[in-house]
Write a structure and sequence with these properties.
Herpes Virus-1; EC 3.4.19.12; 8-stranded mixed β-sheet; 22% strand; Ubiquitin carboxyl-terminal hydrolase; ubl conjugation pathway; 5-stranded antiparallel β-sheet; alpha+beta; Znf_UBP
C-alpha cells in the first residue's frame, strides 16, 4: 500500500468530498445500523458474476460492485474510467491509475470513527461477524508479526491427530470444530480469558487452535482434551469406541458451560446464553400442535444444536410403514418438517377447547444457526438387535434451508401479520438461508468394528480427508459420494443485526 498519498484520490475528494467513501464504508464495510446490515447481507454481490466472494470492491464513482480476483472491478474501471474503488473487506482505497492501494489520513479517520461507532452499537457477536476472516487475520498479523498468514493453496491449519486407542471419534470431531470458520476466527483472536485454565475445556480448545495454525505439520496428541471430556462428561470416560455424534454434543455442552463459567460476552438477554457456542451452533425449532376438533394451535420453540434425521421407512399413526426410506438429505428434511398425525392413542388436551382430542404435530425451523449440523441416524438400537443403516444418502455441496422455515412450511398460519409482513417486522425477503458444506464425518465398517474419518474443507474449494494422523487431499466427488454420518454446513451470508435468540 502506498503511504505517500494519491493525486487521483485528492482530485476526487476536491470534486465530490468524502461523502461517497463515508456512505460506502458505513453501509458495506462497518454496517453501523440495522438497515445497513440488512442491505449488506442482500446487496453485496458482484454485479457481473452475482457472487459475494473473491475480494469484493465497490466503485467510488458509481453504484457498482465487482470482484477483484475475477477481474470484474478492473473491467469496470477500464470501461467506465472510474479508477477508484473501495475494498469492502478492509475499507482501503484502490487506485487503478497508481496500481496500488493508497493511504489517505482523512479517510482513515473516517474509517476508524465508523468502526468505533459500530463496536458501540452492536453486540459482540454482531460486531465480530461483521469482520471477514481475512480482516481478522490482518489484525492478528499486525499484533503478532510472527503469526503465519493463511494464503491461497496454503495447508496451514492441517494437522493429523494421534489415535490414543479407539479415539477416532474424538479426532474427527476436533477436525470439524477446528475448521469451523467463525469458531476459528474467534479463538485465533485470543478472545477467551479464564480464571481456571487448567480445568477449562475452552482454554484447551483455544490452545489447540494455536497449535493447528502454528505452521507445524507434526501430528498432535489430545491427551488433555480427552481427560477434560472424561472429567466433565463422565458417560464418555473409558477407552472403548464412542459415538461421534454423542461426543460432538457433549463437547458443545461442556464448552457452553465453561463459557458461562467465565463470561466474556455481554448477555443482551438474561434468559439466553450469548457465548460463542450458542452464537454459532444454536437454532430454534418450532413445534406446532394443531387440534383436529377446533384447529387450535399450540406453539413452542426450543433451541437445538443439531438436527437428527431418521433414515428408516416413515411410519403412519397406526404404526405401519407409509413411505419408503429417504435417499437424500432433502428427503430427510422434507420428512422431518412434515405434519404428523399423532393418532387416537396419543390424544392431547387442547388448551382452546379444553378436551382431549387427536392432533397433528409439525416441526419447522424458526431460527437457523450459523452452522447447521445434521446427524443421519445410521445406528439403530432396539431390544431385538443393534444394527447400522449403510444406505447411501446424497447430500449437496450447497443447501438452501428456506423450504423448511416456519413461515414457509406452515403457510404463516401461526405468525401474526401486518401489511403482509410478520408482526416482529422481519421482512422474509431479506433472509438468505443458503449454506455451504464444510465438513463431513463418516463411519466406515460395521457397528462393532467401525472407524471414523472426516472430510474437511480448507479455504473455499480444497478438501482433505482426515484419518487420524493421516491427512490426504480429496476431491469434492469423494466427499459427496461418501456415506455421511454427520454433515456440517456454514451459512453463506450472515445477516448482521439479527441477533434474535430463541
Amino acid at each position: 500500500m502506498s503511504d505517500h498519498g494519491c493525486i487521483h484520490l485528492n482530485n476526487f475528494k476536491a470534486a465530490k468530498g468524502i461523502q461517497p467513501y463515508k456512505v460506502i464504508h458505513s453501509y458495506f464495510v462497518t454496517s453501523t445500523s440495522t438497515e445497513a446490515r440488512i442491505r449488506k447481507a442482500v446487496s453485496c454481490l458482484c454485479h457481473t458474476c452475482k457472487t459475494y466472494k473473491d475480494r469484493l470492491h465497490s466503485c467510488l464513482h458509481c453504484i457498482f460492485f465487482g470482484c477483484y480476483v475475477k477481474g470484474h472491478i478492473q473491467e469496470h474501471a477500464k470501461t467506465k474510467k472510474h479508477f477508484l474503488a473501495v475494498d469492502l473487506c478492509y475499507g482501503n482505497i484502490l487506485c487503478f491509475q497508481c496500481g496500488d492501494y493508497v493511504y489517505d489520513r482523512e479517510l482513515l479517520g473516517v474509517a476508524k470513527a465508523q468502526w468505533s461507532e459500530s463496536a458501540k452499537s452492536l453486540s459482540f457477536g454482531e460486531f465480530y461477524r461483521a469482520w471477514e476472516p481475512t480482516q481478522i487475520e490482518a489484525e492478528l498479523l499486525r499484533k503478532h508479526p510472527r503469526r503465519r498468514r493463511v494464503v491461497e493453496n496454503s495447508t496451514i491449519g492441517l494437522r493429523g491427530l494421534i489415535n490414543l486407542g479407539s479415539t477416532c471419534f474424538m479426532n474427527c470431531i476436533v477436525q470439524a470444530l477446528i475448521h469451523t470458520p467463525l469458531l476459528r476466527d474467534y479463538f485465533l483472536a485470543d478472545r477467551h480469558h479464564c480464571p481456571q485454565p487448567t480445568r477449562c475445556l475452552v482454554c484447551e480448545v483455544s490452545h489447540l487452535f494455536q497449535e493447528f495454525y502454528s505452521g507445524s505439520k507434526a501430528p498432535l496428541t489430545l491427551h488433555k482434551l480427552l481427560h477434560l471430556i472424561w472429567t466433565h462428561a463422565r458417560h464418555l470416560a473409558g477407552y472403548e469406541q464412542q459415538d461421534a455424534h454423542e461426543f460432538f454434543i457433549a463437547t458443545l455442552d461442556v464448552l457452553h458451560r465453561h463459557c458461562e463459567a467465565a463470561p466474556i460476552l455481554i448477555k443482551d438477554n438474561p434468559h439466553h446464553c450469548n457465548c460463542i457456542i450458542d452464537q454459532i451452533f444454536t437454532g430454534g425449532l418450532q413445534s406446532d400442535v394443531v387440534c383436529q376438533a377446533c384447529n387450535g394451535v399450540s406453539t413452542t420453540i426450543d433451541p437445538f444444536w443439531d438436527i437428527s434425521l431418521d433414515l428408516g421407512p416413515a411410519a403412519s399413526a397406526s404404526g405401519s410403514d407409509s413411505s419408503g426410506p429417504p435417499t437424500s438429505l432433502l428427503d430427510c428434511l422434507e420428512r422431518f418438517t412434515r405434519a404428523e398425525h399423532l393418532g387416537s392413542s396419543a390424544k392431547i388436551k387442547c388448551s382452546n377447547c379444553q378436551t382431549y382430542q387427536e392432533s397433528t404435530k409439525q416441526l419447522t425451523m424458526k431460527q437457523l444457526p450459523i452452522v447447521a449440523s445434521f446427524h443421519l441416524k445410521r445406528f439403530e438400537h432396539s431390544s431385538i438387535q443393534d444394527k447400522k443403516i449403510s444406505t447411501f444418502i446424497s447430500f449437496p455441496e450447497q443447501l438452501d434451508m428456506t423450504p423448511f422455515m416456519s413461515h414457509r412450511r406452515n403457510g404463516n398460519n401461526n405468525s401474526a401479520m401486518i401489511d403482509g409482513l410478520p408482526k416482529n417486522g422481519e421482512d422474509m425477503a431479506f433472509s438468505d438461508n443458503r449454506y455451504s458444506l464444510f465438513a463431513v464425518i463418516n463411519h466406515e465398517g460395521s457397528l462393532e468394528t467401525g472407524h471414523y474419518t472426516a472430510f474437511i474443507r480448507q479455504q473455499r474449494d480444497q478438501w482433505f480427508k482426515c484419518d487420524d494422523h493421516l491427512i490426504t487431499r480429496a476431491r469434492l466427488k469423494d466427499v459427496l459420494t461418501s456415506e455421511g454420518y454427520l454433515l456440517f454446513y456454514h451459512k453463506q451470508i450472515l445477516e448482521y443485526g439479527r441477533n434474535t435468540k430463541v
